[in-house]
Amino acid sequence: MAFEQLAKDVPAYRAPGQQLGARMRMFERDKDELRKLGVPIETVELASETKHYRLASRNFYLPRLGFDAREGTARPPSKSAEGNRPPEVTFSVEEYEMILRAAARAQDLGHPSIARDAVAAVQKLSFDLPIIDPESTEWIVPTPAAGDSVILAVLDDALQRHKTVRLTYRSNEHGVVSRRDVSPYGLLMLRGRWFLVALDNRASAVRHFRVSRISRAVVSVRNAQRADFDVPSDFDIRDLSEERRAWELGDGRPISSVVEFDFSDAVAARGAELGERLTSGRASSRRFAVRRPESFVRWLLAFAGAARPISPHAIVSAWRAAAKDAYANYASADRGES
What we know:
The chain is of the alpha+beta class.
């Protein structure tokens, strides 16, 4: 196909008032980007001296898969399109088992669309490679928790349509069950658990809701074809995944805790960067907003004394008790006690 034919289907190449030279430069950049992504675009010079561009179908067949001859023999691949397929790519048995375990782990996450993708990936592999039961992949991908899958499916629907959701939610702090009207902004996985990031409409604040604590989620049916809200243009869920720590998660009122760090310890100095500098007091002290004291205390213990909480009393007491228990456990281990 010549560029003139391609341009008819690409709006950016036929913008009003655009010069041919500018369009061709844009086309060259796009070709370079596609080639970097692995799309083999061929340039063909015809007798008319007009350049044409070709995508050869043979370049888009995936390679035949098989096992290393020393490891075993895969069942013969399907004969469909056999003449067009590239040479075989081989796996060791260990590599193949690792792929299958990864598919199982992906479905264990409990997200419906990820689970479907994991099953589809295994089914595609089974086109060339044997699985225990070619008609089923249940042996590879255990069924996730039914409750979480149903809730995640509801939240997915609300996210796509920008609809508000009423949650029945059990808080972490006191186990209190309440109803929350939220505007969902995204789903986030932190430390192996799914969280809904949403605007709590009553509190007018963005919160994290652990999906496993949501027992019911009902999407608003008012104006079903119309969005209920717009996600703020400056919202980026990647910022939350990088910055939020275990002790910051939750929807309760945060506790302000001040911690003193030993800056001669490089690890402690790095940990201090997560806190807020105080306007007065010691330069080695930092303030933290803590919603989950237990997680915060465990984090402080990892500094082996190079980070000590100095307020409030509840966190100081919890830290001392945890340190005492840890010392007792290690001391008994050194003595060979069970």
